[in-house]
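User: Sequence recovery, please. Input:
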């Protein structure tokens, strides 16, 4: 994301790129998509050994960063995942860890298990028929009204959880969910095992072949006191941290997918000849590629700036995060569609790999805030600051 990487960061990035090229080439991605499995669990555990889930975790639980710039380093991995259209619960796992990092020693064993890949956790944030506006509002300090979240009702020292979450990444494979709910004590975040009584998991269709989602129904699910992670203002702060993590990593992953789509298109224009000349020699096509390259580099810059802002001061990173998510989501979609057009008819065939990158770009645009939702958030932040 940034041009000024340290030697250790370059090695980290190169290791991720080589691991993905060796373990999940495009043929494997297609096979995983056709099998409907999303990803291989052993592959994910191998990925965690490369430090992909360690950046936001304290050292006593197996974590650690390369240069104390955890979000920048995670963004480097996200770009490589996008370039490979790779499977795996990278974004949702790190969003959960971002929320648990501030929860103290009470969830230390769970954090260690997630970081090691032994426990698969997913961030259950969306609710049916709702976008991310309510999450944005909570992350910015507003209190959701009655009926705007799943409900958690006091039951002894714990809660009873009722409600529905959807668009839960890797929800059909998760061992545990981090759920935000409304209670008489204000917003709460709860850890709920996937096999708890009252939990129903229903896989749902997604545009991406290997980034799968699920709907999770909670019916009077008993949540003990030791599974209550955050309450009140701490829950709102945790949601803000999780949202920033998910949005930055999704933007970075979208940059990677767009970069690969551009590379593929440039190769096609260079190799394909018509009337005795390479397509790339025609000035009209050069101009289109130049425009796309300019927008791609702006996407890379805004995503890198958002990651740096989170590393520098998470409390003031909201605007940079929303600028990156809105800009990348909008421009990457335009670039991706133009890459299809520049390929001509071959670009819309199932056999050509281009649609895999277009699917990843489309999912990245929709998840964790559309461009429109993040533009509204920027407006709200500016109005509040005025």
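Assistant: Recovered sequence (386 residues):
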């Amino acid at each position: 994301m940034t041009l000024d990487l340290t030697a250790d960061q370059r090695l980290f990035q190169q290791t991720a790129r080589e691991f993905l090229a060796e373990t999940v080439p495009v043929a494997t991605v297609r096979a995983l998509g056709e099998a409907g499995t999303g990803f291989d669990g052993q592959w994910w555990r191998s990925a965690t050994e490369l430090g992909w889930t360690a950046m936001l975790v304290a050292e006593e639980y197996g974590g650690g960063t390369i240069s104390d710039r955890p979000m920048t380093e995670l963004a480097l991995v996200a770009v490589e995942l996008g370039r490979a259209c790779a499977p795996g619960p990278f974004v949702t796992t790190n969003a959960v860890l971002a929320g648990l990092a501030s929860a103290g020693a009470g969830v230390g064993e769970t954090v260690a298990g997630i970081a090691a890949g032994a426990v698969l956790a997913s961030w259950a944030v969306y609710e049916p028929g709702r976008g991310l506006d309510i999450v944005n509002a909570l992350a910015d300090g507003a209190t959701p009204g009655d009926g705007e979240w799943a409900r958690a009702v006091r039951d002894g020292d714990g809660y009873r959880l009722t409600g529905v979450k959807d668009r839960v990444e890797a929800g059909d494979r998760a061992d545990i969910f981090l759920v935000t709910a409304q209670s008489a004590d204000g917003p709460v975040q709860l850890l709920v095992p996937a096999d708890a009584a009252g939990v129903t998991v229903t896989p749902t269709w997604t545009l991406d072949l290997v980034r799968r989602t699920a709907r999770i129904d909670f019916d009077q699910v008993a949540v003990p006191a030791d599974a209550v992670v955050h309450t009140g203002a701490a829950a709102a702060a945790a949601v803000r941290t999780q949202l920033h993590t998910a949005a930055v990593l999704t933007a970075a992953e979208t940059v990677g997918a767009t970069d690969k789509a551009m590379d593929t298109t440039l190769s096609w224009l260079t190799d394909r000849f018509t009337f005795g000349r390479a397509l790339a020699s025609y000035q009209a096509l050069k101009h289109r590629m130049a425009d796309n390259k300019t927008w791609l580099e702006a996407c890379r810059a805004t995503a890198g700036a958002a990651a740096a802002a989170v590393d520098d001061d998470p409390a003031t990173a909201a605007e940079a995060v929303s600028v990156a998510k809105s800009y990348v989501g909008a421009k990457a979609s335009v670039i991706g569609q133009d890459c299809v057009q520049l390929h001509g008819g071959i670009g819309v065939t199932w056999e050509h790999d281009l649609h895999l990158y277009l699917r990843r770009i489309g999912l990245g645009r929709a998840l964790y805030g559309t461009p429109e939702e993040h533009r509204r958030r920027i407006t709200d932040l500016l109005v509040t600051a005025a």
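Residues 283 and 289 are 10 Å apart (CA to CA).
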